[in-house]
UniProtKB/TrEMBL annotation:
InterPro entries: KR_dom, NAD(P)-bd_dom_sf, Sc_DH/Rdtase_CS, SDR, SDR_fam. Belongs to the short-chain dehydrogenases/reductases (SDR) family. Gene3D superfamilies: NAD(P)-binding Rossmann-like Domain. This is SDR family oxidoreductase.
Length: 241
């Protein structure tokens, strides 16, 4: 299945996993909209993706806050205005605050839940009619933290446990409508998550290009088959001493 002239919207596509997915799809000829809360960051990322795509898919940078439903609806209007359709939606934008519950603030809790969970609810609500029109694909980026809890992860675990369950439920809601829904649940990925620098010490981790290749393969899969939940881990993590 070719992806040439398909269209995609990727939230948080300016960095990390979202950037890796956007670059991989654009190289396949997909026209890709990437969102960021900063239009400047989205524009800078779009230029880098254009270089990687070598003239294949078009790139549309958009300013959008996933926590704002009106902002999400406006982004969808921009995508439809540019290309007239939407084939793939990748709900990738995420944030993490990690602290013991004694130290976690209400502001950190709400930012995590509003971004990682409510933001995805807004994403499917704003895009579902467009995806039904193309028999499209809605993909969420959850985490192994969506099945494995850890100390200091109450907000992040809650958001990702919720996202995993939410995605599986809407998969059942939408599959008879022709919309495929899936989630990818990565373990350790070498990204700049929460503004952390990536270094050579991250070489053992999953790379953003690996997730990009995975998404390309998923979108190329015959529509009769749906991997509805994909867990992915580094092959050989360091041995804890």
């Amino acid at each position: 299945m070719t992806l040439v002239n398909k269209t995609a919207l990727i939230t948080g596509g300016n960095a990390g996993i979202g950037f890796g997915i956007a670059a991989a799809l654009a190289a396949e000829g997909v026209n890709v909209a990437i969102t960021s809360r900063s239009l400047r960051r989205a524009q800078e990322a779009a230029e880098k993706i254009r270089d990687k795509a070598k003239g294949h898919g078009e790139i549309l940078p958009l300013e959008m806050d996933v926590r704002d439903f009106d902002s999400q609806k406006k982004a969808m209007q921009d995508v439809l205005g540019a290309w007239g359709k939407l084939d793939f939606y990748v709900a990738n934008a995420g944030v993490g605050h990690f602290a013991p519950i004694q130290e976690l603030t209400p502001e950190q809790w709400h930012e995590t839940i509003d971004t990682n969970l409510t933001g995805v609810f807004y994403s499917i609500k704003s895009s579902v009619e467009a995806l039904k029109a193309t028999n499209g694909f809605f993909l969420t980026i959850s985490s192994l933290a969506g099945t494995n809890f850890f100390a200091g992860g109450s907000a992040y675990n809650a958001s990702k446990f919720g996202l995993t369950g939410f995605t599986q439920a809407i998969m059942l809601d939408l599959r008879q409508e022709g919309v495929r829904v899936s989630t990818i649940m990565p373990g350790s990925v070498a990204t700049g998550f929460n503004n952390r620098d990536v270094s050579e010490a991250d070489a053992w981790k999953i790379q953003i290009e690996d997730i990009g290749e995975m998404v390309v393969s998923l979108f190329k899969l015959d529509p009769r088959t749906l991997p509805s939940k994909i867990e992915v881990r580094p092959s050989k993590p360091p041995v804890k001493k």
